[in-house]
Specification:
It contains two helices and eleven strands; from the N terminus they run ββββββαβββββα. It is mostly beta strands. The chain is globular.
Length: 140
């Protein structure tokens, strides 16, 4: 499977490349009153208004200030059989690479701070464990 590797704090996540539409520099966020914490607002991407997702919040990670490496990964994901375009904040974008399904590890049910349903699977990349998140589950 081809995946885009992104960093959130010390963790590395893999986003399936079929979902990725583009990678952009950070743009201003318009906060939405009453928005859920993991979907704090909207951004304008070339005239299209899309929600911005903060995976850090869903994974219980502390908030971080933007750095020169911060990017927004614009993806399209199916939610209830409808395609939804949104942006995901990434502290760093690494590369597109092939990850092997041969190294897939089951998600441990204990010893993790994250809800197991947020993780599609765990695998290895460059001798590090990486998480392939279940984006549609995280967003609901």
């Amino acid at each position: 499977m081809k995946a885009l590797m992104i960093g959130l704090g010390p963790e590395i996540f893999a986003i399936e490349t079929e979902m990725v539409r583009e990678i952009i520099d950070p743009v201003p966020l318009t906060r939405v009153a009453g928005a859920r914490p993991h979907l704090p607002g909207l951004i304008n991407v070339r005239g299209n208004i899309i929600p911005l997702a903060d995976l850090r919040e869903r994974f219980g990670m502390p908030q971080a200030e933007a750095t020169p490496d911060t990017r927004i990964v614009v993806i399209e994901v199916e939610i209830d059989d409808d395609p939804v375009t949104l942006g995901i904040i990434a502290d760093k974008v690494y590369e597109v690479t092939e990850i092997s399904r041969d190294d897939i590890q089951t998600t441990p049910r204990i010893g993790m701070n994250w809800r197991p349903e947020y993780i599609q699977f765990i695998t290895k990349w460059n001798d590090e464990f990486i998480i392939v998140p279940s984006i549609s589950t995280i967003l609901i």
